Amino acid sequence: MDVADERPAIERRAVVRGGFYETQARTMIEKVPPASAVAERWALSPYRGCAHACRGCVARRGHGSLGLDSGRDFDTRIVVKANAAVRLRAELARWQGEPVAIGVAGDCYQEAEATYRLMPALVAALAEAGVPFTVYTKSPLVLRDAELLAAAGARVAVSIAFVDEKIRRAVEPGAPTAQRRLELVAALCEAEVDCQVLMSPVLPLLSDAADQLAATVRRIASAGAEGVRPVVLRLPYGTRQWYLSWLEQAHPALVERYAELYDKAGMPSPGYEERITGQIAQLARSYGMRCGPAPAPAGRPPQADQLALV
After folding, report:
1. Global model pTM greater than 0.90
2. Are 102 and 135 in contact (CB under 8 A)?
3. Element spanning 285, H or E
Protein backbone atom coordinates (compact mmCIF):
# COMPACT_ATOMS: atom_id res chain seq x y z
CA MET A 1 0.00 0.00 0.00
CA ASP A 2 1.36 3.38 -1.03
CA VAL A 3 1.98 5.82 1.78
CA ALA A 4 0.95 9.43 1.09
CA ASP A 5 3.79 11.92 1.03
CA GLU A 6 2.76 14.43 3.69
CA ARG A 7 5.78 16.65 3.41
CA PRO A 8 5.22 20.37 2.57
CA ALA A 9 4.82 20.99 -1.16
CA ILE A 10 8.15 22.79 -1.39
CA GLU A 11 10.01 19.83 0.11
CA ARG A 12 8.52 17.48 -2.49
CA ARG A 13 9.72 19.52 -5.47
CA ALA A 14 12.86 21.31 -4.28
CA VAL A 15 16.46 20.21 -3.93
CA VAL A 16 17.76 21.06 -0.46
CA ARG A 17 21.36 22.30 -0.37
CA GLY A 18 23.01 23.99 2.56
CA GLY A 19 19.65 24.61 4.19
CA PHE A 20 18.21 26.34 1.09
CA TYR A 21 15.37 25.02 -1.09
CA GLU A 22 16.46 25.17 -4.72
CA THR A 23 13.61 25.30 -7.25
CA GLN A 24 13.09 25.94 -10.95
CA ALA A 25 10.83 28.99 -11.33
CA ARG A 26 7.99 28.87 -13.86
CA THR A 27 7.77 32.65 -13.95
CA MET A 28 9.81 35.53 -12.57
CA ILE A 29 7.84 38.75 -13.13
CA GLU A 30 4.71 38.81 -10.99
CA LYS A 31 2.13 41.36 -9.86
CA VAL A 32 2.99 43.19 -6.67
CA PRO A 33 0.62 42.26 -3.79
CA PRO A 34 -1.77 45.11 -2.86
CA ALA A 35 -0.42 45.36 0.70
CA SER A 36 3.15 45.87 -0.45
CA ALA A 37 4.78 49.23 0.13
CA VAL A 38 6.61 49.33 -3.20
CA ALA A 39 5.64 51.83 -5.88
CA GLU A 40 5.97 49.45 -8.84
CA ARG A 41 3.14 47.27 -10.18
CA TRP A 42 5.43 44.37 -11.09
CA ALA A 43 8.19 42.61 -9.20
CA LEU A 44 10.64 39.75 -9.35
CA SER A 45 12.24 37.97 -6.42
CA PRO A 46 15.09 35.48 -6.73
CA TYR A 47 14.41 34.37 -3.13
CA ARG A 48 11.21 33.66 -1.20
CA GLY A 49 11.36 33.99 2.55
CA CYS A 50 13.92 36.14 4.34
CA ALA A 51 16.53 35.54 7.00
CA HIS A 52 16.13 39.13 8.24
CA ALA A 53 13.05 37.78 10.08
CA CYS A 54 11.26 41.14 10.19
CA ARG A 55 8.02 40.55 12.07
CA GLY A 56 6.07 43.07 10.00
CA CYS A 57 7.15 41.81 6.55
CA VAL A 58 4.12 41.83 4.23
CA ALA A 59 5.56 39.00 2.09
CA ARG A 60 4.92 36.37 4.75
CA ARG A 61 1.64 35.10 3.31
CA GLY A 62 3.38 33.68 0.23
CA HIS A 63 4.96 30.84 2.19
CA GLY A 64 1.49 29.33 2.72
CA SER A 65 1.28 28.29 -0.92
CA LEU A 66 4.46 26.27 -0.38
CA GLY A 67 2.96 24.28 2.47
CA LEU A 68 4.98 26.27 5.01
CA ASP A 69 3.89 28.67 7.70
CA SER A 70 4.21 32.44 7.51
CA GLY A 71 6.08 32.70 10.77
CA ARG A 72 9.23 30.78 11.61
CA ASP A 73 9.29 28.97 8.25
CA PHE A 74 9.39 32.28 6.38
CA ASP A 75 12.44 33.27 8.41
CA THR A 76 14.33 30.00 8.11
CA ARG A 77 13.21 28.10 5.00
CA ILE A 78 14.49 30.21 2.14
CA VAL A 79 13.46 29.25 -1.40
CA VAL A 80 16.02 29.91 -4.16
CA LYS A 81 14.91 30.27 -7.78
CA ALA A 82 18.03 28.71 -9.26
CA ASN A 83 17.01 29.40 -12.89
CA ALA A 84 16.06 33.03 -12.20
CA ALA A 85 18.25 34.63 -14.88
CA VAL A 86 17.28 32.20 -17.66
CA ARG A 87 13.59 32.55 -16.87
CA LEU A 88 13.81 36.35 -16.65
CA ARG A 89 15.53 36.70 -20.03
CA ALA A 90 12.76 34.69 -21.66
CA GLU A 91 10.10 36.94 -20.12
CA LEU A 92 11.92 40.15 -20.96
CA ALA A 93 11.80 39.22 -24.64
CA ARG A 94 8.07 39.96 -24.43
CA TRP A 95 8.14 42.70 -21.78
CA GLN A 96 6.84 46.16 -22.62
CA GLY A 97 9.35 48.02 -20.46
CA GLU A 98 7.22 48.78 -17.39
CA PRO A 99 9.33 49.35 -14.23
CA VAL A 100 9.85 46.41 -11.88
CA ALA A 101 10.84 45.96 -8.25
CA ILE A 102 13.37 43.36 -7.10
CA GLY A 103 13.19 41.74 -3.69
CA VAL A 104 9.51 41.94 -2.75
CA ALA A 105 9.12 38.29 -1.63
CA GLY A 106 12.42 38.29 0.25
CA ASP A 107 15.47 40.55 0.41
CA CYS A 108 17.43 39.91 -2.81
CA TYR A 109 20.73 40.59 -1.00
CA GLN A 110 20.10 38.46 2.07
CA GLU A 111 22.54 35.75 3.14
CA ALA A 112 21.47 33.35 0.36
CA GLU A 113 22.74 35.79 -2.28
CA ALA A 114 26.30 35.47 -0.96
CA THR A 115 26.08 31.78 -1.85
CA TYR A 116 24.08 31.83 -5.09
CA ARG A 117 25.07 35.20 -6.67
CA LEU A 118 21.86 35.44 -8.70
CA MET A 119 21.65 39.23 -8.72
CA PRO A 120 24.46 40.17 -11.16
CA ALA A 121 22.83 38.16 -13.95
CA LEU A 122 19.39 39.62 -13.16
CA VAL A 123 20.76 43.17 -13.16
CA ALA A 124 22.50 42.51 -16.48
CA ALA A 125 19.32 41.11 -18.06
CA LEU A 126 17.23 44.11 -17.01
CA ALA A 127 19.93 46.56 -18.12
CA GLU A 128 20.22 44.92 -21.54
CA ALA A 129 16.45 45.11 -21.95
CA GLY A 130 16.36 48.77 -20.86
CA VAL A 131 13.83 48.04 -18.11
CA PRO A 132 13.84 50.52 -15.18
CA PHE A 133 14.06 48.75 -11.84
CA THR A 134 14.39 49.36 -8.11
CA VAL A 135 16.18 47.04 -5.71
CA TYR A 136 14.62 46.85 -2.24
CA THR A 137 17.06 45.75 0.46
CA LYS A 138 18.40 46.13 3.97
CA SER A 139 21.68 44.41 3.21
CA PRO A 140 25.17 45.93 2.73
CA LEU A 141 25.85 43.05 0.30
CA VAL A 142 24.26 45.24 -2.38
CA LEU A 143 27.52 47.21 -2.44
CA ARG A 144 29.15 44.25 -4.16
CA ASP A 145 27.09 45.16 -7.26
CA ALA A 146 27.19 48.95 -6.90
CA GLU A 147 29.08 49.43 -10.16
CA LEU A 148 26.64 47.22 -12.07
CA LEU A 149 23.64 49.00 -10.56
CA ALA A 150 25.01 52.46 -11.31
CA ALA A 151 25.75 51.48 -14.92
CA ALA A 152 22.22 50.08 -15.28
CA GLY A 153 20.62 53.31 -14.02
CA ALA A 154 18.94 51.34 -11.23
CA ARG A 155 17.63 52.67 -7.95
CA VAL A 156 18.31 51.08 -4.58
CA ALA A 157 15.71 51.61 -1.86
CA VAL A 158 17.19 50.92 1.57
CA SER A 159 14.72 50.26 4.37
CA ILE A 160 15.38 52.22 7.57
CA ALA A 161 12.23 52.54 9.61
CA PHE A 162 13.77 53.63 12.92
CA VAL A 163 17.17 54.06 14.53
CA ASP A 164 16.35 52.62 17.96
CA GLU A 165 18.50 49.49 18.27
CA LYS A 166 16.31 48.00 21.00
CA ILE A 167 13.32 48.06 18.67
CA ARG A 168 15.41 46.68 15.81
CA ARG A 169 16.51 43.68 17.87
CA ALA A 170 12.89 42.95 18.77
CA VAL A 171 11.22 43.28 15.37
CA GLU A 172 14.07 42.83 12.85
CA PRO A 173 16.29 40.31 14.66
CA GLY A 174 18.14 39.07 11.57
CA ALA A 175 18.59 42.41 9.82
CA PRO A 176 21.65 44.67 9.84
CA THR A 177 21.59 47.47 12.40
CA ALA A 178 20.22 50.88 11.45
CA GLN A 179 23.77 52.26 11.67
CA ARG A 180 25.02 49.76 9.09
CA ARG A 181 22.15 50.66 6.80
CA LEU A 182 22.84 54.36 7.19
CA GLU A 183 26.46 53.68 6.26
CA LEU A 184 25.14 51.70 3.29
CA VAL A 185 23.14 54.71 2.09
CA ALA A 186 26.25 56.90 2.32
CA ALA A 187 28.31 54.33 0.41
CA LEU A 188 25.70 54.01 -2.35
CA CYS A 189 25.56 57.77 -2.75
CA GLU A 190 29.36 57.85 -2.91
CA ALA A 191 29.24 55.18 -5.64
CA GLU A 192 26.75 57.36 -7.56
CA VAL A 193 23.92 54.85 -7.24
CA ASP A 194 20.44 56.39 -7.21
CA CYS A 195 19.42 55.77 -3.59
CA GLN A 196 16.19 56.36 -1.71
CA VAL A 197 15.34 55.44 1.87
CA LEU A 198 12.13 53.57 2.51
CA MET A 199 11.11 54.50 6.05
CA SER A 200 9.12 51.32 6.45
CA PRO A 201 7.42 50.15 8.49
CA VAL A 202 6.68 52.84 11.04
CA LEU A 203 5.31 50.87 14.01
CA PRO A 204 2.24 52.36 15.72
CA LEU A 205 2.84 53.15 19.39
CA LEU A 206 6.36 51.74 19.21
CA SER A 207 8.39 53.87 16.78
CA ASP A 208 5.99 56.69 15.92
CA ALA A 209 6.69 59.21 18.69
CA ALA A 210 7.66 62.68 17.46
CA ASP A 211 11.20 62.42 18.83
CA GLN A 212 11.69 58.97 17.29
CA LEU A 213 10.56 60.16 13.86
CA ALA A 214 12.74 63.26 14.11
CA ALA A 215 15.84 61.26 15.07
CA THR A 216 15.32 58.81 12.21
CA VAL A 217 14.79 61.48 9.54
CA ARG A 218 17.75 63.50 10.82
CA ARG A 219 20.12 60.54 10.55
CA ILE A 220 18.79 59.57 7.12
CA ALA A 221 19.46 63.09 5.90
CA SER A 222 22.95 63.03 7.42
CA ALA A 223 23.69 59.87 5.44
CA GLY A 224 23.18 61.82 2.23
CA ALA A 225 19.81 60.46 1.07
CA GLU A 226 17.95 62.72 -1.33
CA GLY A 227 14.55 61.28 -0.58
CA VAL A 228 12.58 59.30 1.96
CA ARG A 229 9.30 57.46 1.59
CA PRO A 230 7.37 56.74 4.80
CA VAL A 231 5.16 53.66 5.07
CA VAL A 232 3.11 52.79 8.15
CA LEU A 233 3.04 49.12 9.20
CA ARG A 234 0.55 47.03 7.24
CA LEU A 235 -0.84 43.77 8.59
CA PRO A 236 -2.27 41.62 5.78
CA TYR A 237 -3.18 37.98 6.38
CA GLY A 238 -0.12 36.00 7.44
CA THR A 239 1.78 39.03 8.66
CA ARG A 240 -1.02 40.00 11.01
CA GLN A 241 -1.03 36.71 12.93
CA TRP A 242 2.76 36.59 13.32
CA TYR A 243 3.14 40.23 14.33
CA LEU A 244 0.21 40.27 16.76
CA SER A 245 1.32 37.05 18.46
CA TRP A 246 4.61 38.79 19.21
CA LEU A 247 2.86 42.00 20.27
CA GLU A 248 0.65 40.07 22.70
CA GLN A 249 3.73 38.67 24.41
CA ALA A 250 5.96 41.74 24.29
CA HIS A 251 3.42 44.58 24.61
CA PRO A 252 0.04 43.12 25.70
CA ALA A 253 -1.33 46.56 26.60
CA LEU A 254 -1.15 47.59 22.92
CA VAL A 255 -3.17 44.73 21.44
CA GLU A 256 -6.55 46.39 21.92
CA ARG A 257 -5.30 49.66 20.43
CA TYR A 258 -4.04 47.81 17.35
CA ALA A 259 -7.44 46.18 16.94
CA GLU A 260 -8.99 49.66 16.84
CA LEU A 261 -6.34 51.05 14.50
CA TYR A 262 -6.40 48.34 11.78
CA ASP A 263 -9.21 47.25 9.48
CA LYS A 264 -9.93 43.67 8.40
CA ALA A 265 -7.59 43.97 5.41
CA GLY A 266 -4.74 44.93 7.71
CA MET A 267 -4.55 48.59 6.70
CA PRO A 268 -4.06 51.34 9.32
CA SER A 269 -6.74 53.97 9.73
CA PRO A 270 -6.40 56.74 7.10
CA GLY A 271 -6.36 59.46 9.76
CA TYR A 272 -3.46 57.90 11.62
CA GLU A 273 -1.51 57.18 8.45
CA GLU A 274 -1.96 60.73 7.16
CA ARG A 275 -0.80 62.18 10.48
CA ILE A 276 2.37 60.10 10.59
CA THR A 277 3.32 60.56 6.93
CA GLY A 278 2.57 64.28 7.27
CA GLN A 279 4.97 64.58 10.20
CA ILE A 280 7.69 62.77 8.28
CA ALA A 281 7.11 64.90 5.18
CA GLN A 282 7.54 68.07 7.23
CA LEU A 283 10.74 66.73 8.79
CA ALA A 284 12.08 65.70 5.38
CA ARG A 285 11.43 69.17 3.95
CA SER A 286 13.31 70.76 6.83
CA TYR A 287 16.39 68.79 5.73
CA GLY A 288 15.91 69.47 2.04
CA MET A 289 14.84 65.92 1.21
CA ARG A 290 12.10 64.75 -1.12
CA CYS A 291 9.29 62.84 0.59
CA GLY A 292 7.06 60.20 -0.99
CA PRO A 293 7.44 57.92 -4.01
CA ALA A 294 10.17 59.08 -6.37
CA PRO A 295 9.74 59.02 -10.15
CA ALA A 296 10.65 55.64 -11.62
CA PRO A 297 14.36 55.20 -12.32
CA ALA A 298 15.21 56.01 -15.91
CA GLY A 299 17.06 52.78 -16.69
CA ARG A 300 19.15 52.60 -19.85
CA PRO A 301 18.16 52.21 -23.53
CA PRO A 302 17.98 48.51 -24.49
CA GLN A 303 20.95 47.06 -26.28
CA ALA A 304 20.37 46.27 -29.95
CA ASP A 305 21.44 42.66 -29.58
CA GLN A 306 19.20 41.91 -26.61
CA LEU A 307 17.08 39.25 -28.32
CA ALA A 308 20.17 37.33 -29.35
CA LEU A 309 20.86 36.69 -25.65
CA VAL A 310 17.51 35.01 -24.98
Report:
1. yes
2. yes
3. helix 270-286
